[in-house]
Amino acid sequence: MESHGAHGIKVVAAMTGLDCHDRGLIYLTSVLRNAGMEVVYLGMFNTPERVVKTAIQEDADVIALSYLNDHLYMLHFPRVVELLKEKGAGHIAVVTGGRIAKEDRPRLAALGISGFFGQEATDEEMVAHIQQRVAGRRRAGSSRTGH
Amino acid sequence: MSGGSKIKSEARFEGCPVTETSAGMPVKATYGPGDTRDLGYSRDVGEPGEYPFVRGIWKDMYRGKLWTRRVFTGLGSASDTNKRYKFLIEHGETGLYCFGDTITHMGIDPDHPMAKGYAGVSGVSLVCLRDMYELFEGISLEDISVSFNNPSMAAAVIYAAFVTAAEDMGYDLGKLSGSILNEPIHLVHSMYDVNARPLELSARVATDVIEYSVRHTPRWHPIAPNAYDMHEKGANAVQEMAFTIAIMMEYIRRMLQRGYDIDQFAPRVNLLGCACDIDLFEEVAKFRAARKVWARLMRERYGAKSPQSWRLYLSAHTSGHSLTRAQPVNNIVRVTLESLACVLGGLQSFDPAGYDEGYYVLTEDSALTSLNIHNILAYEARVANTADPLGGSYYIESLTRTMEERMWATIEEMERMGGAIKATESGWMRDELERELIKEQSEVRQVKRVVVGLNRFVVPEEQEVPIRVGRDRPLEEQIATSEKREREIVELRSRRDQGKARRSLEGLRAASGEGINLVEPLRQALRADVTLGEALGAIRLGYGASYDPFGMVESPF
């Protein structure tokens, strides 16, 4: 599934907290790599601090966060966005997947978090969504400051 | 034709499109005598209860004793879980299941910085000795078996706490039956790999539990390697059993090195905790083949002489990843099929997943439904009347043989690598799992693997058959529960006899450094109100590793 616009996009893929259901993230990583994106796979057990630090160090375009087990992503994900802002890295888009409850989505969406890929998301949808997010950011000409 | 478009049945002429099993074994349209002609009944299959135990480990199978009927349990505090146990026993449960919360699995305490919000969430919080009293308050432990799903190294603490509490409650340790997962190698592939490190230490501690249990709790199964998580992380049916048996061989090696005779301990290290997925015939053949592989391994390779050493006990949790969030009522059908496979496969125990497992920890509703899947299979469906009812089927016997051959090939490949730990450290197993996981997920995405409600026969949410599903506790409540637990543990530490606690931790650290069996020092530490995270920290320090598996907490002593 070679997709031209995917080349040059760099994604940091991570799970936060102690959730260990990483099937989705492993699969997403393989899909994004096959599409030509570069993925820095952080795996499980990350603090928001580590995710953001890595994304900045790696000069990533996107952070992909996955969570399945419970609601604690509502602590972790907003903190990722907050840290990105604090560090002047607001241009990095945050997308999520796993099991993100419908009732939580508006709050996350208001913070600029998107995607919410579940079991049913197709490869094409996930790739296209990330491309759009990155294109949107680049068009908006967000100033890449802070590093 | 008069106007208006008519609806057409799109699937009317579809045949069964699948020509292989989930693990990729080719399946012919028909099987016949030619497919099993070279199988000698007594040599290759055997009577139920006889070597090589393809048809089950007991002669009378379920006529003698039905399988142990468990349901996934573990929520909130020990006393919350105790209430659920009593409810389930009242409705026919014959074996308890104990699933720890994530931080218990990780072997850290509720006041650890990574633990914020996690205590008592999706499992029971077990941190200290008094939790064990609460967990089993009012339940006769000599009359029910307990299956603890705690991986190593936390398992050593949980086992020590269980034995100590049971003794204090007046039970005869010789009569305690059940099992503890107690295995770290799988963690590197499946879940909490932080807690599995250093692997050499955690494998040694797991062996300590085996050794102690063989001496003191002779009816207990002190290790039940986690084939389930292997499967859920991608392993196909062949890999699931081959990897797990190869893992068990690491502990057999260690026990032999400690000077035990194979027949002294093999009858206690012969239990695997499997998955049972939706491919019914493949799962049945998987269980049958695994029993034969084990029996031959014990007798031919290790020279075990006791038939009890040749018998492989099998338990299973039906596959969580086979379930869907869409149309949760369909999950009851899936779990029933998987449970049927467990019965037809001759398992000793299993726990049918909750239909709402994709939503939250089982509610009373879904736990009761899971329990009644047991009850209906055991008492209504007459599927337990005779041993191995699929035995002799051309297809099943042929598939069993193919799977056995493939399991051997994988086990031997791993042996050539130097065993399961080497195959883990080199990354070989992880690569194998990832390849299978990605293959399966791509097949689902491409609808080569149909999942009803997910990639075919999807209905809008408002049309779903209504059924009550578990709701996550709101975030605030989850955090409040966890914080309460955190306060309890901090208070426990402040109230205890500090000198005694410190001395016992020093003792544990020294024992770990000297490489002596750690179960007795753990029991002493638990009596001094030492907590799970502290005890494991002392063990790690003694070995020369960091106190905290995350490197975030300083050693308090």
Describe the protein.
The complex is a heterodimer of chains A (147) and B (557). Chain A has 147 residues and is α/β, with parallel strands linked by helices. Chain A is 40% helix and 22% strand. Chain A has helices at residues 23-34, 48-57, 73-86, 105-110, 123-139; strands at 10-16, 38-46, 62-67, 93-98, 113-117. Chain A has a 5-stranded parallel β-sheet with strand order 2-1-3-4-5, sandwiched between helices. In chain A, helix 3 links the parallel strand 3 and strand 4. In chain A, helix 2 (48-57) packs parallel to helix 3 (73-86). The longest helix of chain A is centred in the C-terminal third of the chain and has 17 residues, at 123-139. Chain A is globular and about 35 Å long. Chain A starts with 9 loop residues before the first strand and ends in an 8-residue tail after the last helix. Chain B is mainly α and 557 residues long. Chain B contains 23 helices and 8 strands. Chain B has helices at 41-45, 61-64, 78-90, 102-106, 129-135, 154-168, 185-189, 193-196, 199-216, 227-232, 237-257, 262-265, 280-301, 307-310, 329-344, 364-379, 394-417, 420-425, 428-445, 475-495, 498-514, 519-527, 532-543, and strands at residues 68-69, 95-98, 145-148, 178-180, 220-221, 271-276, 313-318, 349-351. A 4-stranded parallel β-sheet of chain B has the order 1-8-7-6. Chain B has a 4-stranded parallel β-sheet with strand order 2-3-4-5. The longest helix of chain B is centred in the last third of the chain and has 24 residues, at 394-417. Chain B is globular, with a radius of gyration of 24 Å. Chain B starts with 40 loop residues before the first helix and ends in a 14-residue tail after the last helix. The chains are: A alpha/beta (147), B mainly alpha (557). The interface between A and B is medium-sized, with 24 and 40 residues.
